[in-house]
Amino acid sequence: MTTDLAAHWQELVAAALLGTDRRPPPPPVGVLADLAADSGVRGGSAGLLQQVAALTVVLRSGLTPRAPVPVPMGPDVDLRPVTPPECSVTWSEIVVEWPSLEREWLSAVVTSGHRLSPELVAPLLERHRTTRHLHELVVDAAGPLAAWLIDWSPRFSCVAPRRSVEDPPPVTPDLEALLASPAAVVAESLAGAARDGHLGAAHRGVVLNLVQRLPVSSLPAVAAGLVAVADDGVLPGVWYPVARLATLRHRMVHELAPHPHPEPEPLS
Amino acid sequence: MTRREPAGGGPAGEPVRPSVPTGVWKVEQVMALAPRATALAAAQGIAVADRWRATGCTDTLLWGRCSGGSAEPYDCVVEHRRVLVHCTCASRRQPCKHVLALLLLWVGGAVSEVEPSHVPDRVLGALAAMERHHAAASTSPDGSAAEGGARSPARSAVSPRAASAPDAASRLPDRDSDRSARMRAGLSDLARWIDDRMRTGVADPALAQYRTWDDLAARLVDAQLGGLANRVRRLAGVVGSRPDWHEAVVAELGVLHLLAEAGRRLHELSPPLAESVAAALGWQVRQSDVLAGVPDTDHWVVLGRSDTREDRIEVRRWWLRGLAGGRWAMLLSFAAYGQALDDGWSLGDVVHADLHRYPGALGLRSLVGRRHDEPRRATPDELTTSAVSITTACAELGAAIATEPWIERWPLCVRGTPTRQGDEWLLTDDDASLPVARGSLRPVDTATLLACAAGGPAIVTAEWTPTGVQPVGVHLADRSVDVGPIADPGFVDGGARR
Fold first, then answer.
1. Distance set, CA B10 to CA B13, B19, B159 (Å)
2. Of the candidates A11, A22, B140, B319, which lies 20 to 30 Å from B410 by C-alpha distance?
3. Which residues of B423-442 are buried (b: 16+ CB within 10 A; e: fewer)?
4. How would you write B41-71 as a 3-class SS string?
5. Per the CB < 8 Å rule, is B202 touching A16?
6. Which of B201, B182, B356 is nearest to B286 (CA)?
7. Ramachandran area for residue A235 (φ above 0: left; ψ -120 to 50: alpha; else beta)
8. Paired residues of A82 in beta bridges
9. A67 touching B, CB under 8 A?
10. Do A14 and B219 touch, CB atoms closer than 8 A?
């Protein structure tokens, strides 16, 4: 019956394409014939419309699933714990606000012994198709899932040529000492220099580079100090974003610290 | 609360119908009895034990005395098998709020059952009067119940179906109003236009011109048929858009014909169906009226989200499913350029809340009322409970379309494995498979779906549309991933996926 109705639907569509002025509609079949008999509608445009309306509803409401199909073999097992949900949120913020942190974030995923959460793998592979060293980091962080996905869809493979990776610029000599200083000293030095005007908008790039190289433990104090400076109205357009960088970097590393995250039970 | 269909679906070959209340009296039956939403809202305010004295019930009778605004309390009696009601208050509309409140107390278990021999004499007297009045009304020439005086002891016999008619009628266009006349004229115009298309053929070059459709849509708007105008404009965008566009256009013309015919017979339809048709035509129901209705209280799992651009408006749909009742609900938000969409839900959350459903046979569209608790992440068990097999999901879809044949979207939540056959993506389980609409997902979202499942079954929420099934979310044990279509963040706020 379903096959008959599906074939009849094609005949109705053909009739509707041409129009009943050119070709009469096919006579109703099955339940459509019963409907026509009950309603008294006979042929012509009204008959065609009645059949079209009824059969549309019948076919839609009678949606029959197909037979099951073979399921794909999954990727090899990766025993590393998956990155916690908050990391996915942090990554989405990094991508929007501070993409320069992405390399460190991916490295932190790998060095912390995690693997990428599955919902991040495809977007990261696609994002870094043209940046080989980052693509390789993604593959490393994603584990066997990355190769499996690329196998399904080669569009996620890397298309960039292999080239040497440039190191980030070194910290300027006058700030280099801060890299080894205690957190309080770092925070006070930066905030003081910002407040006094020794560090200004022209030094933004230098300070950003420094913040991305500082020990993670000093970042909260640095962020708090710079926020205080900005709150006092000193170049807020410069220091709020730098504080935000410090906060985000601290959060991204802290989330990936080897906490005892229990592996979630798979849904039964 | 409606019962959930068993996970295995109905017997093979039989359609699964949407869940309907069973048992003698449930809250939904009291709701159906109310002559209008405000009466029910007023009843809820006095459905507290402190306001009632001398209550009791048997297997046929229910009675109580309500302390009202006047010095004299109101005596209520209900014969709940034949639904004969009596109240000594001055209300001219029955059942009044006191009767409804007494019924709500009763279904809530706050009225004690007594032996038939202990029924008070005044209750028996009221019952006798009701029965006499009912007998007289049954034999009246026009079959209508006789109207009593302001304090007549016997009120009209009401049945849930009859009582729901005035309530539904108040939510429909007044049959004799100018507006209804314009709507009927607009529907006749639409019917003629569709008939002309069937005669001249859908391949007519005039249909390839947007103006042809826009003129029709403008006339429908003038006729207060905005819902149909929107459908016509969407249909205009289908012409020539894909190889099988003509099938989609013919099908939608059939549905428009169905709505036009139903609209012209609106007041002959059963109330829920009439309300559904009216909504599809573009008849608006006030939010305050919806919120005044009895809520559907449950723990609602947020299972999916999708955004669509309709003309110059972005429409966001949140799909929720009740854990206890198994019913679906849809929350809508709209945003024009520069405005914000509703971003107040998180995929995979559970919220204990009251939802108020818009009138209609399916009652899918809802408004959120009171929230009883803060949202929390759904447990794996709760997510598993929310999903059904592909076969059952198709049966639920079929039942929904049979109830409202003109629906354009319906949610599915299935436990299935995404896979590919040739260039076609499907969701499959042990018994069935369902193709995913071509082009419904961006390649990265398809890959995300694949990655989350990783060759095994996953809980996937999808939207059915006439063009196919589109996944909108996948739920893992500790997170839910949103893969639904997202609004352009350059157009509206709230256009970023979490």
1. 8, 12, 30
2. A11
3. eebbbbbeebbbbbbeebbe
4. HHHHHHCCHHHEEEEEECCCEEEEEECCCCC
5. yes
6. B356
7. left
8. A115
9. yes
10. no
B215 Cα to chain A: minimum distance (Å): 21
Map tokens 């509707």 to a residue: A16
* Those residues with Cβ within 8 angstroms of residue A121's Cβ, 6 or more apart along the chain or in another chain: A138, A142, A145, A146, A149, B447, B448, B451
Which of B250, B442, B446, B486 best tests the A interface by mutation, with the highest count of A CBs <10 A? B250
Q: Which of B257, B430, B448 sits opposite A122 (nearest CB)?
A: B448
Least CB-CB distance to A65: which of B201, B391, B454? B391
- Give chain A positions within 8 Å (CB) of B195: 45-46, 49
Q: Which residues contact B440 (CB under 8 A, 6 or more apart)?
A: B467, B468, B469, B470, B471
Q: Does the CB of B250 have a partner CB in chain A at under 8 Å? A: yes
By the CB < 8 Å criterion, does A62 face chain B? yes
Taking the Cβ of residue B276 and every Cβ of chain A, the question of whether any pair is shorter than 8 Å is answered with: no
Q: Tell which phi-psi region holds residue B131, choosing left (phi > 0), alpha (psi between -120 and 50) or beta.
A: alpha
**Sheet harboring B74-79: ordered strands across?**
B52-57, B61-66, B74-79, B84-87
Q: Which of A145, A101, A110 minimizes the C-alpha distance to A258?
A: A110
The residue among A104, A108, A102 whose CA lies nearest residue A124 is A102
Task: State both tokens at A220.
Answer: 């909260």
Residues in chain B: 498
Contact with chain A for residue B430, Cβ under 8 A: yes
> Which residue of chain A comes nearest to B496, CA vs CA?
A92
DSSP-derived letter for residue B373 is S
Whether A149 and B451 lie within 8 Å, measured CB to CB: yes
Torsion of CA B66, B69, B71, B72, to 10 degrees: -40
Cα maximum dimension of chain A = 95
Chain B interface, mutation test: which of A8, A63, A64, A150, most B Cβ atoms within 10 Å?
A63
Taking the CA atoms of chain B, what radius of gyration do you get in angstroms? 26
How many angstroms from the chain centroid is the CA of residue A124? 7
Q: Please tell me if residue A3 touches chain B, with a CB cutoff of 8 Å.
A: no
**Sequential pLDDT tens for chain A (268 residues):** 456 888 999 999 999 999 999 999 999 988 888 888 888 887 899 999 999 999 999 999 998 999 999 998 999 999 999 999 999 999 999 999 999 999 999 999 999 999 999 999 999 999 999 999 999 999 999 999 999 999 999 999 999 887 777 777 778 888 888 888 888 888 998 999 999 988 888 888 889 999 999 999 999 999 999 999 999 999 999 999 999 999 999 999 999 987 555 556 556 5
* Cβ(B426)–Cβ(A69) below 8 Å: yes
> Which DSSP state fits A154?
G
**Residues B43 and B34: beta-carbon distance below 8 Å:** yes
pTM of the model: 0.75
Of B339, B304, B328, nearest to B318 by C-alpha is B304
Q: Which residues of B touch A8 (CB under 8 A)?
A: none
- Determine the Cα–Cα distance for residues B160 and B166; give it in Å rounded to an integer: 11
A60, A83, A93: best to mutate for the B interface, most B CBs within 10 A: A60
